[in-house]
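sorry for the late reply, my laptop died twice this morning and i had to redo everyting from scratch. anyway the thing you sent over, i finally got around to it. pasting the sequence first so we're on the same page, its 198 residues, then the predicted structure underneath. double check i copied it right bc i was rushing
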Amino acid sequence: MKRPVIAFLLFLISFGCGRRDEKGPAVERIFEIDPGLVENTVTLPSLGLLLQPPAGWKPAAEDMFIRYREHAGRNTEPGSLISVEPVRLFYKQESQCLLSISHIVSRNGGLTANRIASLIQKYNKIDQGDRQIIRNRYINNDILVEELHIHDKLRDALKLIFQNGRSQWIMIDYTCPESEAVKEKKAIESSIGSIRVE
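ok and here's the structure:
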């Protein structure tokens, strides 16, 4: 694996792992699916999740996924209320964009999407310079989603946090280099529109 890819993976994971009151009802948001901008449906039975990755975002090589998962495990703060356990990773070679699907495990129960997003937001603000974090809350395909949009001069990431029908917490990350984010925007939105839970 090339050094730039490893460096990108390490940066990406440091992107991932404050408290805001949940105000008002979430607004329904519709993401149109352009069939030409997504891959075939991927089913993850362990998470009760179905989605279509953006076009050209292929399953990552096993060694890339292993490094990503190992780094995610080391990146959890001691005493943290959650651990982020990557389940699948997709990668687009040309743009170096990543799609990570993770299971969020609560260490002592009682967490909400809002609280998980707050913990992740807090982690992302630590020693990260001029990083901007915008939070949104909406309903997509009958799923209540807490979204973190994290942006700095190098990377643009969307983190979607929600529960499946089994009350498991899931986090889906779409991350691209800042220079590729606009080009991939419609494909990412089409992928978000494809998300379904069981």
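The chain has one domain: 3-21+34-197.
thats about all i looked at so far, will dig more tmrw
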